[in-house]
Design brief:
49% helix; five-stranded mixed beta sheet; alpha+beta; 184 residues; elongated
Length: 184
Amino acid sequence: MAVKRAKSSRPNGASRAAAPSARQATKDKVTKLSTARKKLASKGPTPAKKKAAAKSIVKSTAAPKAATKQPVVNVVEGALDEMKAVNVKVLAVKKLTDITDTMIIASGNSDRHVRSIADRVVEHAKKAGFRPMGVEGERDGEWVLVDLQDVIVHIMLPKVREFYRLESLWDVSAARREATEQSA
């Protein structure tokens, strides 16, 4: 018994490969879109984006205000906040020493937390383009120091922070308060 095939709706002599499928048509559209996007990207930004970029360059080259923070400090504070550092204190020590402009002191809940906070500070600083000069104390994890040139970050366990009391050593206003309290 022979099976009859239904006649195709294709014209005589047209093969199955000659008719484009819906899948092939979609593929062609995607290819055309991606090449069009590549051409636009190679031409550069639009005039509106060029104007916005020029304005941001003008703003960044302007003289910084005394009240604004250094970008390194903002990066470090962001990393400390992200890792939930405890009792973060930013000290401006530019007038007290010439080794750094700003000192940031923070605490972690455990030695592992202190190490991970320090790692995150280094990671964020590198992403922002600030190369750390050194990291000390990572092995023990009780007190980790990250040297970012203009900013030095101390991350400590609370008991170590209480013992060394760096805030009272570097914060002039706190030292004055302690001196007046002791004399009274």
